[in-house]
Amino acid sequence: MNGVYSLSHLAKLLEMTPKEVATDLQHLSKTLKHSGDLELLMVPAQCRSCGFQFSHKKHLTKPSKCPQCKSTWIEEPAFTIKKMKS
Ligand SMILES: [Zn+2]
Q1: CA of 42 to the centre of ligand 1 (A)
Q2: How far does the centroid of ligand 1 lie from the alpha carbon of residue 85, in Å?
Q3: In whole angstroms, what is the distance from residue 10 CA to residue 22 CA?
Q4: Is the whole model's pTM more than 0.70, yes or no?
């Protein structure tokens, strides 16, 4: 279960809707830790045009527009699930 997932991919994997994953992310992170020593890491969304990085606290789903350059060329946030070292 290693790799990089988009929010929608992660949702499919966990049989949840992207919205559920987004609202339940903190809980999910704890659950993963408890159930299998897995660590959930987040790569925030980023504007591909100017490099603006969105706050992942506010933007768990793909933002529609860059506030800085108004570009809609946005890289969607990604999630990595890592096995924690024991
Ligand atoms: Zn931008």
Answers
A1: 20
A2: 37
A3: 10
A4: no
Separation of CA 33 and ligand 1 centre (Å): 34
Tens-place pLDDT, residues 12-25: 988 989 888 888 88
Kindly list the protein residues that place their beta carbon closer than 5 angstroms to ligand 1, a single-atom ion: 47, 49-50, 52, 66, 68-69, 71
**What HEC string does the chain produce?**
CCEEEEHHHHHHHCCCCHHHHHHCHHHHHHHHHHHHCEEEEEECCEECCCCCECCCCCCCCCCCCCCCCCCCCEECCEEEEEECCC
Taking only the tens place, the pLDDT of each residue in 8-55 is: 888 898 898 988 888 888 788 888 888 888 888 888 889 999 999 998
Residues 6+ apart with CB under 8 A from 22: 7, 60, 61
